[in-house]
Amino acid sequence: MQTTNLIIQLIDDSAVVPYVQSLDEHSLLRLINHIGLEDAGHIAAMATGGQLTRIFDTILWKGNGPGKAETFDPNEFGIWMEIMQATSPQDAVRYALSMDEELLLLGLTGNLLVVDNESLLLRMQNASRSHQDDLLEKVLESHFFLEWGDFLVLAGNNRYWDALINLLVDLGVEDSVFTTFLLERLCMLTTDYIEDNGGLYNVLTATETLETDLAAEREERRAHQGYVPPETAGAFLEQARCTPLEQLLTEQESDCLTRAYFAALQAETVGPRENVTPMNAEKGTASATLPVLQRQLVNAGIVVTEQPSLVIDAVVEGEGDVLNAVLREMRNYNSDQFDRCISELHYPANVVVSAEAINGRPVEAARYVIRICSKGASYSLSPHALSNEAVRELLCKESLVKMFRIGYHLEN
Predict the structure, then answer these.
(1) pLDDT tens digit string along 158-188?
(2) Could you tell me the CA-to-CA distances from 277 to 54, 101, 104, 227 in Å, in that order?
(3) CB 358 within 8 A of CB 352
(4) CA dist list (Å): 96 to 157, 210, 254
(5) Which 8-state DSSP code applies to residue 10?
(6) Cα 124–127–132 angle (5° rounding)?
(7) Could you give the percent of the chain with pLDDT greater than 90?
(8) Model's pTM, two decimal places?
(9) 271 DSSP 8-state letter
(10) What is the DSSP string of 157-209?
């Protein structure tokens, strides 16, 4: 509680804003969780749109089991927008204008429906309208809705209606052109959804949440950070299991999933537009301005000054394994090759975690990957002895991803 009290005392200190904006999204999310979401609105309001978008990429998507694609949770989006609105409507608008447009659309489509007002009015006034139209009129009379120029905005989820409508109204005041663009996009998405689900009456009375295909932007952002989607992770493991062993041993280039992973890591990313300048260049200044806060957050494990690598830890702590021994030697005499090997180990480690291929924490996944790579290396070198020299030569010619695929095939 000491850290929480210090943060509350410093909320009005102008130095806190650049400090919060200097944090990576993992530290910021740990800070918000430490304070408690409902009490952390002021901290979230200080963050840049890019920071919150990356946090949303993590918390707004829910897993559906091993190897299955994650799905967006519009309720979580509604909760965050409600908290932002309650804390500061102005900051809620600032964030909405700076966040990724696709993510904003995805959150709104899960909670609001937007239809063409004129088309709906003509349909309801039609003398030959159907029985379902009569039912629709009764539903509309009891439904949350707002007439907005050419559009009729309807509640897809009543729980967050007030917060999201207030957000749209404030957005309209701040940037009417952008708000109209949002409503047009929402109307197109809603129209497609209505047509696919048997009409507006069925949509308004169904419990099914509006699903869209707007998740691609999120996957691209996370791919640049080394994240492997569950379905891709499952496909990678299944491919290693089913590919004939002889083919795995003789392959001269990486498989397509591995090539895509490393290409995404190397690609340059263009972040979402920010209304607030990121403070990464001023990390030292911000930390020096608030040394007590920085020290308490580091001691509490909320802010990590140096990003740990569980794979490197597993290499350093591993015992009695030739691959571990060679990697430890390599760390001292060939740092470039060591970095390449660690990068190659990180990929299958991320795969194993994402696919939930083993029970346990990420540290167990790192140890598991090294053990499987050792098995693949041992088989690749047979019938020769598994010596340090032989493994060093192997790592100069082959990737550890290939060794993992071979070892995984042998074990499964």
Answers:
(1) 788 899 999 999 999 999 999 999 999 888 8
(2) 16, 18, 20, 26
(3) yes
(4) 19, 20, 41
(5) T
(6) 50
(7) 15
(8) 0.62
(9) P
(10) -GGGHHHHHHHHHHHHHH-HHHHHHHHHHHHHHHHHHHHHTTSHHHHHH--PP
